UniProtKB/TrEMBL annotation:
Positions of the Response regulatory domain: 15-130
4-aspartylphosphate modification, residue list: D65
Top-level taxon: Bacteria
Keyword Phosphoprotein in record: yes
Protein name per UniProt: Response regulator
Entry keyword set: Phosphoprotein
SUPFAM superfamilies assigned: CheY-like (SSF52172)
Amino acid sequence: MAPASNSSEAADRPCVLFVDDSVTMRRSIELTLQTGGYEVVTASDGTVALALLREGLRPDLLLTDIVMPGTDGLTLIREARKLLRFTPIVALTTQGAPEMRQQGRADGATAWLLKPTGGRGLLELVARFVQRAPQAQAV
């Protein structure tokens, strides 16, 4: 898990909480988002993410994998929605079953994104949901 930066520069950037059990995926998405000008806090699973939220982290966007061991993404979305009433939540997964999408939206997901993703498409999606979209750098 990457701690939030305390610098004033980081405070001026929108914050994305990204949750995924894959180290490779976390690093890849984190780098893409940072390159796009976002402050990124990562968590390896839903339990860690919920702990961060309960400790007071208030990201501008929650981006979460759905299929994870332990506290899965649907459970995270349902519990996070209680703490982040108006924060956009984007579900990210390799599985795009309509039933899973319907359940994710019922639990509070704002949008659904299929893996693999990255680069400009990811940054465009995040910018759509984050009110204070930063000046994106070239990816």
